[in-house]
Structures are given as structure tokens and as C-alpha cells.
Design goal:
The complex is a heterodimer of chains A (641) and B (142).
Chain A (H helix, E strand, L loop, with lengths): L7 E6 L4 E6 L2 H7 L2 H12 L13 E4 L14 E6 L6 E6 L3 H7 L4 E5 L6 E6 L2 E6 L8 H11 L5 E4 L2 H4 L7 E3 L3 E3 L4 H7 L2 E7 L9 H16 L7 H13 L2 E3 L3 H11 L5 H7 L16 H4 L4 H5 L2 E5 L9 E5 L6 E3 L3 H7 L8 H14 L3 H16 L18 H13 L3 H5 L3 H8 L9 E2 L2 E2 L9 H9 L11 H7 L14 E3 L8 H20 L3 H4 L8 H9 L5 H21 L31 H11 L13
Parallel strand pairs in A: 1-6, 7-12
Antiparallel strand pairs in A: 1-2, 3-4, 3-6, 4-5, 7-8, 9-10, 9-12, 10-11, 13-19, 14-15, 15-16, 17-18
Chain B lengths: L3 E2 L8 H5 L5 E2 L7 E2 L9 H5 L5 E2 L16 E4 L9 H5 L5 E3 L12 E3 L10 H5 L5 E4 L6
Antiparallel strand pairs in B: 1-4, 2-3, 5-8, 6-7
Bound molecules: iron/sulfur cluster (3 copies).
The site of one iron/sulfur cluster has 13 residues of chain B, from α3.
Chain lengths: 641, 142
Amino acid sequence: MNRGYMGKILWVDLTVKEFREEAIPDEIYEKYLSGTGLAAWLLSERLPAGADPLGPENILAFVSGLLTGTDSLFTGRWMVAGKSPLTGGWGDANCGGNLSPAIKRCGFDGIFFTGVSEKPVYLLINHGRPELRDAGHLWGKDTAETEEYLIAEAGGHARVAAIGPAGENLSLISGICNDRGRIAARSGLGAVMGSKRLKALVLNGKKRIPVYQRAEVQRLSRQCNKWVQLQPPFISGPMAAYVGTLMRVLPTQMAMEGMVYKILLKKWGTVSMNQMSVEIGDAPVMNWKGSNVDWGIGKSLSVNPDAFKAREKVKYHCYSCPLGCGGVCATKGPYGDVHKPEYESVLALGGLCMNGDLESIFTMNEMLNRAGMDTISAGGTVAFAMECYEQGILTREDLDGLDLTWGNAAAMITLVGKMIRREGVGDLLADGSVQAARKIGKGAEAYTMHAGGQELPMHDGRNDPGFNVHYSVEATPGRHTIGAQLYYEMFQLWKRVRGLPRPPLVYHKDRKYVADEEKAVMAAACSKFMNVANGAGLCMFGLFLGAARIPTFEWLNAATGWRKAPEEYMAIGARIQTLKQNFNIKHGIDPRSFRAVDRVVGRPPQNRGANKGRAMDIEKMRSDYWHQCGWNPKTGHPQGE
Amino acid sequence: MSYRITETCNGCGACVKLCPVGAITGEKKNIHLIDSLLCIECGACGRICPTAAVKDSFGIVCERIKRSAWEKPQFDLKTCMPCGICIETCPVNCLAPAEPVSGRELHSHPFLKEDKRCIGCGFCASECPVRAVRMSRSFLAE
Ligand code: SF4
Ligand code: SF4
Ligand code: SF4
């Protein structure tokens, strides 16, 4: 039967070098979809409690999405999952490029690795036939070099995912790269791959992906594409910052229309938000203690959207994406043409460290992509070290002579290089700020901006408390790609899912901080919906178009032949959410321990800037959220103990 | 579903060279065999076979067509989004992103980079959601 999925997965045991195909029953796809849902089910079943994340028992899963390759749009995301060495619980990360269809074209919905190889190896799948090959000569090479080498060796055409030196060195903030610098960065899963001595996956598949009603999927895609191509003429990059200023000074706020964000994304990519976010109070500044007052329009001008646009040579689209938020940019540095840095990377290596030197941001971004290290966590860790230096907790001596003052771009580049190579103080910082603070002592912990051990992304929960909720309640803490009040507004789920509230068009900003039941309903809806999206392989930016314009549920029905209502898909999302929460509990995590740190939730509140005076009852918000998920509101345990 | 080789096969091996997934095996001058689990139904074997020995998935005997007359994709760049679906779909990887046309937004659209390798399967056209790919022989006239 043609149902959009391939119906089987590949197991690779790296210890004994054995392959095993496993057929997945249709009921499993109906219960958990594919993608991270499928991975969550398998890892819950097969990963023993207490498994060492960097040991042979851990399972590292590379999964594609149910909708990938069905001629639906925005469905080129692949996901990696495993037990996270960074948080100790459920870990996943999501990435674009062209790898996702390649997994399915090899005949599998996912490739699951167990064991540990004695020597470095890489997996090659040619015409559906897997083999493990020696990767000794690739160990130590960066992700771009590795990819180029392996593609050439495969005859010029293959899709590759690889770790760089960071993953090899078991850095707990390392990720997995594909398409020359796109990275599944979060949860530290690069270290899991490094611990298995698996350097890369080389996929050369040509299988056709079976679809129930391809013509219907395509018809829906054509409708969706019309919205994507609707693009008015434009305001300039720096002007966007003043829109942000205006949004800050007004006491009221309008529900965000995702079409507006889509227009910005299509024109500039995520960097469109660089300055605007600082102005609104969405971007954290100076390790979360600063604000737009410290890094105002003048200072952030160097990273205004047009500065990136000026270097852009060509737009970059992930597989099946009609939008193309990415870009290839020319740099003067040694790397030549590179992927356009993302908003997250620019702000983590920019405003968070008070660094306005654009060239240095390009350099560090590319260094980190090639090393396979998460730019968010790396930037967060550098900012942490900067504040420790300011506080006298880390001295110049501790820092190998670096004068790590706010905004010292040259010192930052040196430090990032050391972190990648685990050299000197870089070894201390290569596992992120929380691990470093533990080793430093002296109260350094107060300057780690994290949730559950993972550095926080560049969205300030004191501006949108929804971010703080998701940072604190998700099985993968500290993530910005699941939910927020802003995201709920843009998803417009109430237009498709019965019973979900429609937020008011205009509201007073104070309203955002009130912990009421409606907000918990919205937050839970975001989590459920993103589980559906990550099962389908959908990109969140596509979903910002709004549920009436991007036909998530309709595509799923057309691709699989199911006749599920949107509410049934949301129930699948809820099931996956519970599965992941239970995974964490099985592995000894107390859900309460994931709460974002005090400074981030406004304790004490800031005394100036966009988020002046803002604080929230995060414990109540969290408890309400757990309640909405049907879990114990006091403990966050799904079994209602 | 899979293509199939019948007794008319004279074992010339033309299809073996062409099959993009290595599904066809056989000794020279002996009847060849298609591995039905590997076959992706691109039809290349049927188009090249000189003895009309290949049947498609519906059991219909494939018609031989001179290779120079095989249909090839043409791209309507105004309609193309571009999404890259066709590039990933091509079983012989003969499509690639082109240099962007300057002036407009700099998107890179697909083009037939290695036209000699194209097997005329039409997968690119059938998977393009916005129907920006048309299979045609019009290049012959050019
Ligand atoms: S139809 Fe295509 S894939 Fe199938 S055997 Fe013939 S050439 Fe190979
Ligand atoms: S599939 Fe169609 S829209 Fe997508 S790149 Fe190819 S021609 Fe363009
Ligand atoms: S018809 Fe299209 S998909 Fe088939 S070989 Fe030619 S370019 Fe590739």
C-alpha cells in the first residue's frame, strides 16, 4: 500500500558491524507518524534505563519525515534523536538541506545506530545496500572537507551527514552537519556520533517514495505555493529595526500574522529579525543581563539584514522548499563562499556577547559549522565566560591570556578555536557553560543561562513568556523551535482544530504575563502540533504561514490515505509528547529540574530596557501546562502519580 | 511493481548499462533478469531494448525508441518555485541548480546539466508540484 512512508528502518550495530532491516507495522505510523515520533517510540522501547549517552547502549537515530518526498512543500527536514549527553534525557535536533529525502530514497524511514565501533567508520548506502567503511583518514577533518571527499568518492552524487572535530572530541555541545554547514545542532548528539566512532553517513538512494494520492498532494502544494510567492515590494533592512522600536514603545501588541514574517524570511532569511528582535526585547543581550539600551540600533547596525543581503550570491532552498530563507554568502575570510549565518548564530555570537563585528560573526559561524559545534550553545558559553571574566571568576590567566571583555571579537575567535580543539581553556568550555561552571565553582553557576543543562536560544522569555514555558517543560529543554505565544498566533491552529482559542487581534502587553488556563491550552497545542510537524518532516517556517494556508493535515491524509481529522493528528502529537516525557522519567530526570534559570524568568526583573520590570510565575505556567497535557500538575509525571 | 524481461531477450546487455539502480543482471547472450525489489520503473530498459523483450508493470511490451529521440525535461522558470524536488528525484542525477539569473531575486533554478545521461523517465516532470517541467522532444528541432 502506498502510504507516504517506506515502512521499514535499518539497524546498524557498530560493535559487530551488522545490519538488520526491521519492518514497522502500519499501526505504529498511525500512532506516532514517522520522524521523531517513530524514533521516540523505538527509543522508548529499546533503550534501557540508565544507558550511558556516550556508551554502546545509546541509540542514535537518523529519521526522515512522513511527508518528505511526497511532493508536499516545506517537508525536507530530517531529525536526529538519541539520549542526550547534555541534558541526560530525550535529545533531538532538526535540520534541513537535502538529506531527508536521501534517507527515504535508500528505502528507510530511519537509520538507527547502536554499539560502538572500534575504529572510525562511515556508513555508505548504495542502491539500498549498506556497508561500513574505514574512516580513519577522515577523522579530524572538518564537516565540509569530509562531505566533499565522500561525495567525490561516491562518484559525485550522494547526500552526506557528518561530524567534525567537535563531535569527535565528544564536545557535549556538538551537532551533526549536512549540505556543507547546515547542522542538527542541539542536544549534543554530535558527541553521541563521535562516541560511536561514526564519522559520516553517505546516502545514495534512488528508491521511489510511495504516495497514496500524489495528484492531491501536488494540488495542495500548488495552493500553498501561491501564498508563499505573494511578496510585496520592500522596506529596507535598517528600517525593520524601527518597526521593532515602535512595537516596543506601544503598550499594546497585535497578534502576529505569519504572512508578515514569511515576507521577511523570503526577502532576507532569519537575519531579517536581527535588529528588530533586539528592539522589541526578543533578543537577549550581554548574557541576558543587558537590553536594547546596551546594544541599541547604532551598535546592532552592522548586523542589519541588508548587510547580509549585500553578501548574498544566491538563495538557498532546503529540499521541497518554495521559500528559500537560506543563502550562500561571499566572505573575505579563508572560507570563501559560506552559508548565510542564521539569526540565532548572529545574535549568540553578536548581541549576547556585545559583539558588532560582522566579519567575525561570519568567521565564527563557519568555524563552528565546520567543527560541527552548536552556535547557540557556543555563543552562550562564550557569553558566560565573558561575564565570569567581568566578575573576576575567570582571570586572564585562566583564559590563556585572553582579554575576554564584552565585544572583543578577536578574543572570541581565538576562544572558539580553542573550544573546537579542546585546547587550554577551550577544553573547559567545550562541554557548554553548565559543565564548565561545575568545574570552575566560585559561584560561576549564577552566570549560566540554561534550561536543563542546555544553553538558551536567542528568544527572551521576558518578552514572550511562552518561550520560557517551552524552555522549561519540553523533554528537550531550552529549545525555541516548539512553541511560544508568538508561534501560537502564527500557526493559526484555531482555523483547523476545533476547540482551540483564537487570540485577540490587539491586546495589552501585560496580558502576556498572566498565567491563565488559555495560555496553557495554547502552549500544549504548540507542543502537540510540532510533534506532528516533526513526524511529518515539516519546517516551522512553513507552518508560520498559518494552518489555513499550509495544509499539514490535508497533506498527511492525501499522502497516507488516512482520513484523520485535525483533532486526531493533535492527539497523535499529544501521545508523542507523553512518550518523550516518560522517556525522561525512565532515565531518571525530574521534570521540575528543567526550569529556565532565574535571570531568564525575570528574577530579579530588569531595571531598564524593553523588558524592564517583567517577571512571571513560571511555576504556575509550568504546572498549568502539565495539567493541559493530562500529567500530574505538581510533578510533571504523565502517570498522574 | 516492476518491469520484467521476457524470452525474447537476446542477452545483449544494453539495459544493464542503463539501469540506474543496478536491478538487471544476466550473462551475455543469456536471458536477463530484473530484481523486482530494486526496479524503480523508470522504463529505460524498455526504451533501449532492441528485441522488445521488456514488459512494463502492467505487462505491456515496451516500445523501442531511438535514444536521440527520448523525451527530455524543459523547465518553465516563471512557474518554478524553485524547490529542488526534481533534482533530488532524478535517478541518474543529471539535473543541477543553475547559476541564478541576475536582476531578480537570486534563486537558482534547475537545468539539465548532463543531457546525455538523461534516461527520459519523466520522474522530474511527474514530481514537480507546480507543473514547471515538461517532457518534450522539441530540442531535436533546435
Ligand atoms: S525499469 Fe528502470 S529501474 Fe527497472 S529494471 Fe528497467 S532500467 Fe532498471
Ligand atoms: S520540481 Fe518544479 S518547482 Fe521544484 S525546482 Fe523542479 S521545476 Fe522547479
Ligand atoms: S527525465 Fe528527468 S528525472 Fe528522468 S533522467 Fe531525465 S532529467 Fe532525470
